[in-house]
Fold this sequence. Notes:
466 residues; 51% helix; elongated
Amino acid sequence: MKKQALEQFRAIPEKTWGEWRYRVLGAGARTLLAIPGGELVNDLGFEFALAISETHTVVYPAYPRASSIEELADGLRAILDAEGIDRVAILGASFGGAVAQVFVRRHPDRVSELILSNTGVPLQYLAPPARFTYWIARTMPWGLMSKLLRKLLLKTVDQDVAGHAFWAGYLDELCSARLTKADVLSNMLIQYDYHRRFHFTAEDLKGWQGQVLIAESDTDVIGPRRRKALRETYPQAKVHTFHDAGHAPMFTRYDDYLRMVQDFLNNVTGPHTNRQTFTDSPGGQVAAKTPDDESADGEIMERKPTYHSRPRQTPSAGSKRYNGRVQFDGMSKINWSRALLCGLLTGIVWIILGAVVTAVLGGDFAALPNNHLGAPTPGFVVFNVVIDLLEGISILWLYAAIRPLYGPGAKTAIIAAFAWWFIVSLGDATWCSFGFFPPPTVIPLMIGTLPALILATIAGARLYRE
């Protein structure tokens, strides 16, 4: 079914404007501009676009490589100009929601409705980890990066066992033939710049008469703090909260998501003065949240409905299918005190295991002229103990920074340890190229320190909590 729908969608010819590629489908009197997320392409949401096109004209672009988010917003406006479209409803999901928010501020007269799905407002505290993630990604070969991207996207869109093979094949094609490392790095820099330079407030759109719908999930990688910031920026918005739907309810709760968007677009009557917040409720209906549903600090309490309007399929006992739900709720802020303490533990374990590795594999390195390792002084020992403890803290900080993306546990600890080891090993290789150390004396230590770093990081990560 999905394969045939994708073929039907791709049969619609792409149009071009400059470096932009886009599809226009449907012939409705009203237009929906569907902006892609971090996948960057214009057919991941093919089923949704086909369904909406039965009642609306749908413009579905793919992003070109750009230097800023304003460039993307202005490119979308140029596409609307080329198509002779005056005003549109905009649906922006994930990164697309960031582009949509910039668009409505730069071109408010072109937007009649705004749907922000599983996205967030710019927050400056997110800029440093975004920049750091970019630098780590730069060091990765595309083969490794594309595998990580494919796995992340597969977790995001696939909760249906029956559709697993389709999405795995789609993402194989996406990451092997359609995206490049340069495309992904360009997008990562734009996301960093978005959080670094922009600040939105509820006053920004004071004169705009359009309506806003916020779609969120209580198990999204966009945690409670960021969801609250989005709601406060758009106090007039309707808010629909999906339970247990991860980062992409368009895929994981397709029928409910489609109905939500259709109801919103088909029942536009004018600006809202009373915000209504909805969540999945028993009986498959939606119930408005009241002020009693908010905690003392204004945070909306997450209810736990007992009914799923689209039941999840459970794999059989022998199935190797993983649980694709994104369960990172509440992991949007680093617990610095815990990171420090767990980092010290990581450093201590690293000192012990590093000493073993050095004793076993570092004989030739210790025998080099002017190397204090062969006959260490007290000052030398103290200095290196402090350095190793700081290294443990830095590795644990990296684990905490990427934990919202990959989830808690040993897998993320291994990724953090490998990334840290890879960067440090590049430095070791540089010193060897300068002739400071003969490679045969360093390479055994480089190889031996990787499992030691992994074990030390896992030890610290086991005790880390947000």
